[in-house]
Amino acid sequence: MIRPAKRTESVQEYYFSRKLKEIAQMNASRVEAGEDLVINLGIGSPDGMPPMDAVEALCGSAVEAGNHAYQSYVGLPELRKAFADWYARWYGVALDPAKQIQPLVGSKEAILLISLTYLDKGDKVLVPDPGYPTYSSASKLVEAEIIPYDLKEENGWWPDFDALEKMDLSGVKIMWTNYPNMPTGAPASEELYARLVKFGKDHDILICNDNPYSFILNDRPLSILAQPGAMDCCLELNSLSKAHNMAGWRIGMVAAQAEVISQILKVKSQMDSGMFKPLQLAAVQALKQGPEWFRDLNEEYRRRRVLAGEIFDLIGAAYQKDSTGMFLWGKVSEGAGEQVSDRLLYEAGVFITPGFIFGKNGSQYIRISLCAKPEVLAAAKHKIEKIW
């Protein structure tokens, strides 16, 4: 058998990919035994419907014969303009739709594209701990050197800028940031973004802010690009996956200065042949949603956050009741988060994500996804009550 490339030895199959296989096997056995299926509170995949005008635009344009050909690598002008209008309306950021926006197949594609574009073998990358595992795996695949930086609860899950300044930053080209933060639920702020911009400028580091949660349980969406001088050292990823219930559609974008977009496009254009046109036209409609869309969305997530909090209260996990984003992050009272997660899965049939998968600083934590209907969260609590 032909040996895989050595770079694949640096990564494993994504945790949730492996865990979903295990849960599927457990469910198959449970069906045979006449038992309830596992309740999955692990993954942040919104369960609501997308905006109906987006669905209608998708269906209407999909029946047009001319809409099934290859598309432009840079995306439809209408979509780039819709993203620019969205940024101007909600974040107060003026972007040139022709030069400063690149539509993408979700943020996950962007993380790999940016890594391929800017990182050579041996270049250094600042990666948050805890943080989204794909920041590390993409860095490993391009053979960059990962430099973890701590996010701690006592510091509000912010970077410790004093500690960062004392680090050897020679060779660091990229810093991954993610606010509102996943998994911790820490909010973004103008002060935080201003400090990140200053840090990037002072050390000639590209600050890559991943911003898909800015509308979830958050009344004031913020963008790092609204900070003075941010375009000199920052880019921002955004997505329709979370705030528009369109995770499976795989529609995202990157915003940055024109030269950065041009460099990313050089790599992207080697790897795909554009996005399905009806998806792009539907995204244009989704981006037109007004305040009532986000108001209704967040009313539902607030209800779910309370119910998730009741599960944490039951098992004695400490959490922030006003956390942002679509997860609730809790610190377990005894042992490690992985032990609590395993007990809940194997004894109660409820899967809650262990925090260790996000880094060593998450080892005492667990994470509940709010992408489960209230009755599902209530059922999960009932199952846990039987064993806790």
Question: Keywords for this structure?
Answer:
388 residues, alpha/beta, Aspartate Aminotransferase, domain 1, Aspartate Aminotransferase, domain 2, 2 domains, 7-stranded mixed sheet, 12 helices, 13 strands
Can you characterise this structure?
The protein is an alpha/beta fold. It has 2 domains: 6-49 and 291-385, Aspartate Aminotransferase, domain 1; 69-275 and 282-286, Type I PLP-dependent aspartate aminotransferase-like (Major domain) (Aspartate Aminotransferase, domain 2, 3-Layer(aba) Sandwich), CATH 3.40.640. 40% of the residues lie in helices and 14% in strands. It has helices at 15-33, 52-62, 77-91, 106-118, 133-141, 161-166, 190-203, 258-268, 277-286, 291-315, 337-348, 374-385; strands spanning 39-40, 101-104, 124-129, 145-150, 172-177, 206-210, 234-239, 252-255, 318-319, 327-331, 350-351, 353-354, 365-369. The protein has a 7-stranded mixed beta sheet with strand order 2-8-7-6-5-3-4, with helices on both faces. A 4-stranded antiparallel beta sheet has the order 9-10-13-12, covered by helices on one side. Strands 1-11 form a two-stranded parallel ribbon. Strand 9 (318-319) and strand 10 (327-331) form a beta hairpin. The longest helix has 25 residues, at 291-315. The radius of gyration is 21 Å and the shape is globular. The chain starts with 14 loop residues before the first helix and ends with a helix. The model has no long low-confidence stretch (mean pLDDT 96).
